Amino acid sequence: MNEEPQTSLRADYSNGQLENSVAIVTGGASGIGQAITELFAREGSHVVIADIQDDAGNGLAKKIRASGGKASFFHLDTTDESNWEEVINGVIREHGRLDILINNAGIGGGTTLLHETPFADWRKVMAVNLDAVFLGCKHGIKAMSQKGRGSIVNVSSILGLVSMPRTGAYTTSKGGVRLLTKAAAVDSASIGTRIRVNSIHPGFTKTPQVEGRLASDDGANFHALVDGAVPFRAWATPAEIAKGVLYFASDASEFVTGAELVIDGGVTASV
User: Fold this and answer.
1) Can you say how many angstroms the Cα of residue 238 is from the centroid of all Cα atoms in its chain?
2) What is the pLDDT of residue 99?
3) What H or E segment, with its residue span, contains residue 128?
4) Which bin fits 265, alpha (ψ -120 to 50), beta or left (φ > 0)?
5) CA distance 65 to 168
6) 31 Rama class: left (phi>0) / alpha (psi -120 to 50) / beta
7) Which candidate in 17, 87, 142, 242 could, as Cys together with 39 as Cys, close a disulfide (CB 3.0–4.6 Å)?
8) What is the pLDDT of residues 43-100, one digit of tens each?
C-alpha cells in the first residue's frame, strides 16, 4: 500500500523566490501580515515576525519551523524608535543582514466624521499608520545600506488613493504612506543604493480587523456596501494581497521602485 507523501511548508507552490533572504514583517502575526509571513517562509526566506502580539507571534513562528520553514519572533511596538533599533540590531546580529522589510502593521481609523474626530484619535492613527512606517523606512534603509540593496514594501490601502465617508484619519494616514514611499525610494536611490521602496494598496480584505466590523451593529450594511463597490463582487483574501507583496520583495521587481500596486478587485477602476 502506498503511503501518503510527507508534506511541508515548502511543498505547496514554492518557487524559492526568496531563498536565503532575511525579512522582517511588522504586524506579521495575524491578518495580511500572517499571510505574508507564511508565503515568505514557503519561498525560502527566514521571516522575522515583528508584532506586539507576543503569543500569536511566537505561536506562528513555532508553527512555521515545525513545517520546515525558518521563522523567529521579535516584540515590536512600531511607534517606538528605540524598539525599532533593538529589533533591527538583533536581526543584524543573528543573520548579518536585512534583505526585506514589510511595513504592514496598522490600525483602522474609526467611523467618525472628520470634524467630529477627537484629536487624540487622529494622532493615534497617524502614529501607528504613518509615523511607524517612517521609522521602518528610516532604520530599514540604514540597515540595508550596509550592502547597498534590499526591498522595502509599505502596506497602504486603496483609501490612500481615494476616500470614503467617515475615513478621514485613516485615509490621510494611508495617503501619507503612499507619498512617503516615493520619497524614500528617491532618497535611497540618490545615495547610490539599489534599495527599492514600493507600496501595496489592498482593497476590501477579510482580516480579523474587518471581521470585527462585520460583527458590529452596522455589519450587514457595511458588507452590502462593499459587495456593491467591488466589480468582482468578492472580498480579497489576505493570501491574495500577500502575492503582490511577494512580487515587490523578490527579484522579479528588481528595477521597480517608488511604485504602487493596487489589489482591489477593480474598486478604484470603477468609482
Assistant:
1) 10
2) 98
3) none
4) left
5) 41
6) left
7) 242
8) 999 999 999 999 999 999 999 999 999 999 999 999 999 999 999 999 999 999 999 9
Residue with cell 497617524: 126
Checking if the pLDDT of 5 tops 70, the result is no
The catalytic site residues sit at 170
Residue 153 or residue 7, greater confidence: 153
* DSSP characters over 220-256: HHHHHHHHHH-TTSSPBPHHHHHHHHHHHHSGGGTT-
CA 57 to chain centre: 15
Residue located via cell numbers 482580516: 207
Distance CA 59, CA 135 (A): 26
> Among 104-118, 182-196, 207-221, 226-240, where is mean pLDDT lowest?
207-221
**Contact residues for 220 (Cβ-Cβ < 8 A; gap 6+):** none
Mean pLDDT of 227-246: 91
Res. 1 pLDDT band, cuts 50 70 90: very low
Place of cell 521602496: 197
Residues, the chain:
271
- What does the alpha-carbon distance between residue 45 and residue 39 come to, in Å, rounded to a whole number? 9
CB under 8 Å to 1, separation ≥6 — which residues? none
Q: For residue 20, what is its C-alpha cell?
A: 536565503
The C-alpha cell that represents 28 in the structure block: 506579521
Residue 6 per-residue DSSP state: P
| For residue 2, pLDDT beyond 60 | no
Cell of 65: 519551523
Task: Determine the distance from the C-alpha atom of residue 258 to the mean position of all C-alpha atoms in its chain, rounded to a whole number.
Answer: 16
